Fold this sequence. Notes:
Blueprint: H1 2-41, E1 51-54, E2 83-88, H2 96-105, E3 115-117, E4 128-131, H3 132-135, H4 148-154, E5 155-160, H5 171-188, E6 195-197, H6 198-201, H7 213-221
Parallel strand pairs: 2-5, 2-6, 3-5
Antiparallel strand pairs: 1-4, 3-4
Amino acid sequence: MAKATGTTRNGRTRQMGFRAKVVWASLVGSMTAVTALLMALDRGSPTRLDGLALPAMVATQPSASIEAVFRTRVPAADGQWLAIVIDHTGAPFGTPASINAEHKAMGLKGLGYDFVIGNGQGMSDGEIHVGERWLEQSPGAHTAGPDGDWYNRHAIGIALVGDGTRRGFSQTQMTRLLDLVSALAREYQIPPERIVLHSDVAPVAGPGRYFPAASVREQIDSWR
């Protein structure tokens, strides 16, 4: 009996090991495919690690610092920005420098997002980093999927520092996100239906199941 039990356990162990390998292989394959697509879509010259940091807003002046995002080095072309894509960085810690390094390691030409909103780990909670691509009004490298080229050229990419597949985002981050999205949508006349999550337009997880999609959609739809 003891021998039979040992054989069964070894069989289960081998089966579980095989399943784990299949899961990991699928995950790595998916990540590789997304990375390869973003690399293909990220054309043009390499970007510098540059930008503008906007501190967390003062409660009594909710739009005081947001207006600074429109002071770009290159004026926005008429009709250039037609959508907004919301994502997460996929890691609990992040700074403009660390995310820039990660994106370069992926083969991109620097930070792919237009805006990054900090969570208190690496960047201040609610701090907005205005990326070099936005300041230069260059195409982003933030959206994968079959329509990635269109979104990278015509959508504003915003990422929350954090991993929304594991935990939620801070209230300060969410407040900053909605204020930023509201200001951008108003300035460029982007309708609510063109404000999407990365997972809405590409086979990715971001911004994750802990992102409060329903409440955010409700607030965005109320802007009509």
